[in-house]
Specification:
The protein is of the alpha/beta class. The chain is built from 2 helices and 4 strands, in the order βαββαβ.
C-alpha cells in the first residue's frame, strides 16, 4: 500500500544509491506502518533541472510517502524521521554541491484507494 515517490537532482545520480535506499526504506517502514514489504511501491525520478534558492549550485532529494488515511500524526512523523535518516545513509556528499533532503507524508484516501494484482 505505501506509495513512495522520490525526486532527486541529476547531479546526485552517482552519489545516491537509490535501489538500496528503496529496499532499506521498505524493510524499515514495513513493521512501523503494519504493511507487508511486498506492498510497498517506490518510484525514483531524476530531475534534469532544478533551481534552489538564489540559483547557486545545489541539489535536492524530495521524498513523498503516501499511507492510507487514519494513521496518527505521531506515526507519520516517525515515518518521516526514519525515511530522512535512511536517505542520508544512502547519499554520499558531493563536494561543492550542498544537498537538501525534504520529505512529506500524506494520506491516501482509504475509501478511494484501490489495488489490482494480476
Amino acid at each position: 500500500m505505501p506509495q513512495i515517490t522520490v525526486d532527486y537532482s541529476a547531479e546526485l545520480s552517482e552519489a545516491f544509491d537509490r535501489r538500496a535506499f528503496a529496499v532499506a526504506l521498505h524493510r524499515t517502514l514495513s513493521p512501523l506502518v503494519s504493511s507487508e514489504e511486498a506492498a510497498f511501491k517506490t518510484r525514483l525520478r531524476q530531475i534534469e533541472e532544478s533551481v534552489i534558492g538564489d540559483g547557486s549550485p545545489a541539489a535536492m532529494i524530495h521524498i513523498r510517502v503516501g499511507l492510507l488515511s487514519g494513521r496518527p500524526v505521531e506515526l507519520k512523523q516517525e515515518v518521516g524521521r526514519v525515511s530522512i535518516e535512511i536517505a542520508r545513509d544512502h547519499l554520499e556528499p558531493v563536494e561543492g554541491l550542498p544537498t537538501q533532503v525534504t520529505l512529506e507524508v500524506y494520506d491516501l484516501d482509504r475509501e478511494q484507494y484501490q489495488k489490482l494484482v494480476l
